Amino acid sequence: MAGLLTPKQQAPVEQEALPPDQMPPEEDMEADEDNPAFIAAVEFVKTALYEQGAADQVSSVVKKSKSPVDDIANFAYELTSIADEKTNGEVPDELLVLLGSTVLAEIAEIADASGITLQPADIASALKMMILRFMGEQGYDTRQLHEAMNQISPEQINQMAQEGMANG
User: Which of 83, 127, 138, 161 could be disulfide-bonded to 41 (CB atoms 3.0-4.6 Å)?
Assistant: First the structure.
């Protein structure tokens, strides 16, 4: 799957090492869950959901939904986008999928508490929708990525999740 979304490859450019006083701060070099912007984005989402009542709206919509997977994907995508905006886009690109996954997990928990039964394949499908939407909005042709993601069937995802639970 490597290279599906990368622009036309160019020959690597040799770079000289920067003097220590010109090196980027360490937090810019390595993105992890301890990144302040990531933490702020997650806190924004949790505040919006649990303190400002968005969870009630999510619950109400998914209870009436004809397509709860689409709805949870849309809620999670929109909340992820808003959280990234609220942090002035400071969430590193490497953490955007993790942020989206974290938001999706919260939305899925709300759906579950609302009586909507979601299988692991449903969550995977929602995440797939979110990723394809993001990549499409960034101007990428997502056809190859979509095809690659469809190589694993929902049944296989559910089976892998069951095996993971049995082994874990």
Answer: 83
